């Protein structure tokens, strides 16, 4: 029986995946906002200490988005805190637990290349100037691709397989975080054109049943994305890891 930890595992894609894996016989630790505030570096670090000491699969699916710029109590822009800092920190802190498993996997639901609108705002990672929800979300997507690109370089002897995965448009309920009228518009579009969370969970469960052998894989709804794309640039990944290590050093 595998032990699977899923952040954002109480609703949306993460919740559907948690249900599916439980029914298949896995031990699932589904983490939601009631378990820890994943926008907080301190609470995320404390959460890692409470999780099982052997983890087969870590699924990074938590995210929070807002049309307004929200700053956490620790001084971080909210989207960056949960979508980038939190995922970086959990992957780092849970590495020993993952390495005790036979075939450890990190599955990061991320941008997975090809998003030309997204870029890292190196001089303003917290988007204090000119914040928009789109800019914050796209920066997070690009940053997570770099987290995957840099993971093997920072853990050269680790057996962990890192999988970046973009499920594309899914009716996941994320529109409920928006204000009206955007909430209604995005919700209607998701219902009409998005795949269901159950369908997304089926694809992810199949992927986790037979994970790729490579140390890093990028997939867009199951289709491979070349790691030679500029979104996976190793120098940018190294730069991001250095910045994130400094921002989380006190955790």
TrEMBL record:
Any keyword Oxidoreductase?
yes
* Membrane-crossing residue ranges in chain numbering: none
Q: Span of the secretion signal?
A: none
* Keyword field: Oxidoreductase
Write down what this protein is called: NAD(P)-dependent dehydrogenase, short-chain alcohol dehydrogenase family
Organism this protein belongs to: Micromonospora zamorensis
